[in-house]
Amino acid sequence: MQTLIVLLLTFCVAIITTPLTIILAKRWDIVDMPNDRKVHKTPIPTIGGVPIYISFIVGLLIADPFEPEIKPIVIGGGILLLLGLIDDVVDLKAWIKLLVQTFVAGIVVYYGIMIDFISPFGYLIEFGFWSIPVTIIWVVGITNAFNLIDGLDGLSSGVAVIALTTIGFISILQGNIFIMLICVILIGSLLGFLVYNFHPAKIFMGDNGALLIGYIISVVSLLGFKNITLISLFFPLVILGVPFVDMFFAVIRRYKKGVSIVNADKEHLHHKLIKLGFSHRQTVILIYTIAIMFSAASIVLYHSTNWGVFIIFVLLLITIQLIVEMTGLIDDDYKPILNTIRNMIRRKN
Question: Which residues are annotated as a binding site?
Fold first, then answer.
């Protein structure tokens, strides 16, 4: 009951603060202007991270968790919110954003939140010094993955809700009430914001919101799944399958084209689905469905034996490959499995 109350309160705070933020953003002219790379056609306020962060902080004050791990979440989240706000206004250089994100990831390490070791098949492997760069790469990677998928109304916020729900559910199975509470608080904040962010959006999350959410989820996933078996280490990767897949193949795509991996393009998963003929709303719902599929797979993975884990991973890899080929996520000519199936059908006919 107390958890439900916290969820409703953070939802209500976001419902109230988001329209106020929209008014202020329009007054201060902090809006996202349409261009040839973007889907929207009119200027939209782009400081959605502000009401999310405010409602998240209010939720923390109400729930009053005493664990010291809350400090890097609040401090790092605030820094990335500010970074995103500046970037949304003046368009910072990529290296500046990466430098600040690395610094914030260093805050996580400073508070002792690291992947210290894994124990595959009963063998202990300690990372030692390497736990620091591994943790930093983890935090920066997830933070940017959410920023990359923030291209359609309600997409990043909805995928985040699905991921947080899954992490929260698994944390209940593990008896980790602190992680569950953080997830619930952020879910309430995101759902309240999503009322105004779903298509047609009245406000965008912006880099400030996407960086904030990606960062919190990266820290929560570390807290929930660190110092565990090799198999369990992949839980967050599966739960966050949509942003990871989009980011991974964006890097491959840009590398193949010989352009910088930090260059923005209009070739992400949501762009590809719209090009295939799906509407804005249909594309978002379809990606939600894919995210739910990954989340369901992670829950099954949690209860699986080694053979079950192997089978699930094979199925997930095949599914990802088919998504990549059907959408042309790397390029329109990359279809090895689909071309093989077509050739087999032609031979039979």
Answer: 147, 207
